[in-house]
């Protein structure tokens, strides 16, 4: 009986320890983020890109999300199909006009998944490996990543998930903020990754709503206009976990201002070794890059 009780106690302690570790998932000391999964090397916002980034040792997978007509959360930077790297279901190229008529919010996921977003050469990223692949569901990305981490014995990564929205696009290209956040968080909570998620956006409305509704979730404010850190915080109405500026906006003073307020600074999108080294020397807390292979050098 004593042995039985001791076994129960041991199992209980182990479960509590695992829960505590999960609940206190530490943010990386220096955050290396694969932008859109590392689109310099693999087709952007796809499962192969995310798994490749894991192999390269990044601490965070950065990705963009949209919502489909049938309420699915998918990975895509663009509001519509992108003709620069998308082929039709029968393998043909798309004109700009044809592609831009295909708003993802107006399409069901089954139809979106028929398009190939990895086979067409993408001149902006000549080193990108060509793989026939489709726009994935966020939940499929999470499942694939978590299974891959376990199979490879890799440490848990963070997910930095952007809500692709702007005030003029509500109910045209994306749901209004409350609905967008609701659908995104349903996936995050169901997949139990809330302890290692950051939600980022240029659209302050989505992260403001998220901060009120889910204050335990880390948020990042994406910015591309030079202002003081106090101005960013004031317009947002709270202190985000991260301020994520276009990298050319970063100065030693901006970093000092962020750190003085307990805010991390993780700039985007930094694609040369020289710029990465310079920003590290200034004291940023992480870097987002299309070339995750450069981040570990």
From TrEMBL:
It comes from the Bacteria. InterPro entries: GP_PDE_dom, PLC-like_Pdiesterase_TIM-brl. One of its GO terms (biological process) is lipid metabolic process. PROSITE patterns: GP_PDE, PROKAR_LIPOPROTEIN. It comes from Mucilaginibacter aquatilis. One of its GO terms (molecular function) is phosphoric diester hydrolase activity. This is Glycerophosphodiester phosphodiesterase. The lineage of its organism: Bacteria, Pseudomonadati, Bacteroidota, Sphingobacteriia, Sphingobacteriales. Residues 1-20 form the signal peptide. Residues 30-297 form the GP-PDE domain. Keywords: Signal.
């Amino acid at each position: 009986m004593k042995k039985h009780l001791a076994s129960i106690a041991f199992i209980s302690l182990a479960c509590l320890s695992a829960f505590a570790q999960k609940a206190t998932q530490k943010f990386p000391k220096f955050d290396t983020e694969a932008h859109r999964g590392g689109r310099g090397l693999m087709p952007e916002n796809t499962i192969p890109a995310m798994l490749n980034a894991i192999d390269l040792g990044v601490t965070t997978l950065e990705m963009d999300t949209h919502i489909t007509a049938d309420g699915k959360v998918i990975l895509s930077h663009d509001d519509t199909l992108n003709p620069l790297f998308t082929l039709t279901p029968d393998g043909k190229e798309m004109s700009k006009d044809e592609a831009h008529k295909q708003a993802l919010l107006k399409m069901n996921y089954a139809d979106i998944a028929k398009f190939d977003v990895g086979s067409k050469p993408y001149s902006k990223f000549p080193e990108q490996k060509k793989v026939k692949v489709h726009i994935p569901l966020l939940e499929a990305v999470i499942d694939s990543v978590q299974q891959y981490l376990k199979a490879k014995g890799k440490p848990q990564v963070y997910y930095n998930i952007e809500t692709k929205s702007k005030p003029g696009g509500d109910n045209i290209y994306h749901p209004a903020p409350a609905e967008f956040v609701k659908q995104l968080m349903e996936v995050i909570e169901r997949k139990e990754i809330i302890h290692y998620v950051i939600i980022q956006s240029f659209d302050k409305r989505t992260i403001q709503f998220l901060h009120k509704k889910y204050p335990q979730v880390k948020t990042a404010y994406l910015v591309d206009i030079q202002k003081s850190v106090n101005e960013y915080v004031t317009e947002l109405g709270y202190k985000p976990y991260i301020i994520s500026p276009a990298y050319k906006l970063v100065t030693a003073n901006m970093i000092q201002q962020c750190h003085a307020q307990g805010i991390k600074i993780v700039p985007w999108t930094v694609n040369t070794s020289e710029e990465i080294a310079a920003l590290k020397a200034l004291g940023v807390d992480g870097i987002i890059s299309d070339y995750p292979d450069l981040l570990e050098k």
